[in-house]
Design goal:
By secondary structure, this protein is mainly α. The protein contains two helices and no strands. α1 runs antiparallel to α2.
C-alpha cells in the first residue's frame, strides 16, 4: 500500500471519528427536543463513541495487517 493511500485512509479515519461522535450527539439532541428532555444527548454521545471505536478498529485493521505481512515476509 502506498504512502498516499495510507495517508488518505488516516484522513478518512479522522473524519469518521468526528462525524460519528457528532452524529450521535445530534441524534440525542434531536430526541431531547422531541421528548422534552435534556439528557438523551449523553446516550447519543456514548453510542457515537462506541461506533467510533468499532469503526476505527475495522478501518485500521488492514493497515496493521499489511504492515505485519511486510515485516514477516
Amino acid at each position: 500500500m502506498s504512502r498516499w493511500v495510507a495517508a488518505l485512509r488516516l484522513v478518512g479515519v479522522g473524519f469518521f471519528i468526528g462525524g460519528s461522535i457528532m452524529l450521535g450527539v445530534l441524534a440525542g439532541l434531536w430526541l431531547d427536543n422531541k421528548f422534552g428532555t435534556n439528557w438523551l444527548w449523553l446516550p447519543g454521545l456514548i453510542l457515537g463513541i462506541m461506533v467510533t471505536f468499532y469503526g476505527v478498529y475495522r478501518m485500521l485493521l488492514p493497515l496493521v495487517s499489511d504492515r505485519q505481512d511486510k515485516e514477516n515476509g
